[in-house]
Amino acid sequence: QVQLVESGGGLVQAGGSLRLSCVVSGRTFTTGWFRQAPGKEREFVAGIKWSGLIAYSDSVKGRFTISRDNARNTVYLQMNSLKPEDTAVYYCAAAHSASSTVSKSSRDYAYWGQGTQVTVSS
Question: Which of 20, 61, 63, 68 has most Cβ atoms within 10 angstroms of its Cβ?
Fold first, then answer.
């Protein structure tokens, strides 16, 4: 069984930064970050495989960085140059998929955290 606990959300002004953390208990192949804004579908933000392979959505590429600290069993999402459209609940998710690529589909992730709110004011 895999458990994920997110932290680090909050309120920030446009152009600011936040760092989200996800403590992962259990073994996974891929850890990803998704987000869901009110009235919208959950969307992929970034993901990292056990091999170190990383993928980002086009909307955050160049602004967000995903990383992993294996000693702390923690995956981070550093978010810079935040925009109001980044406002959403951010979820950490884990997948056991042995695929060679980072899945961007929420259907491939079996385990989810409780979510953390990120609000970017203009």
Answer: 20
